[in-house]
Amino acid sequence: MRMTLALAVAGALVAGGARAQFGDVQKPVSFGIRAGVHMPKNTDNGKNWTAVGLDARMNMGFLPVVGGQEIALDYLGKSKDNRVVGVTLVQRYSSPTLVPGQPKPYFGLGFGVYDARWKTTTLGVTTVEKKTSAGVKALAGIDLKGGLYLQGDYHYPFSGIAKEARGLAITAGMRF
Question: Do 168 and 31 contact (CB within 8 A), yes or no?
Fold first, then answer.
């Protein structure tokens, strides 16, 4: 797990260095990929899970203080048998930076759908539970130079087995 996170961060840093020569331009639509660790509130299934995310950001250039919307796909899991996948729509807020290219903090809140698959074995009997639930996602992060960004997400599925994934994900990513 630590090796996966270290490789993801190293890859993002290398790619960011290559991208930095082109400058930081606020695009109307940008795409991001991120990886890190998810720490579920319920640690019965382990303290650290894998967190991987893809997102599309729609930036409103004429309203720089407001921010924009983000559609995200998040994978939170221990294995193919114990995982939660969320699709969320988030309203992001940020403030304009005085100097272009400087780190830019942001935060947001949104809602979405979480799909869970959970396999358990009790007294030699294996059961697989599948459940889809609505939920909310809160996020805070910072856009760094060269397309790099760091983000923390709090996932809160409302019901069913997806509740096992309630918790904080810390990720590092690259925006294209």
Answer: no
Copy the structure tokens of residue 62.
Answer: 């004429």
pLDDT tens per residue across span 72-108: 999 999 887 889 999 999 999 887 767 777 888 999 9
Q: In the structure encoding, which two tokens stand for residue 108, read together? A: 């947001």
The token duo for 150 is 């760091």
CA gap 20, 113 in Å, rounded:
35
Contact 77, 53 (CB under 8 A): no
**CB of 136 within 8 A of CB of 163?**
no
- CA-nearest of 49, 35, 32 to 5 is 35
The pTM is what? 0.79
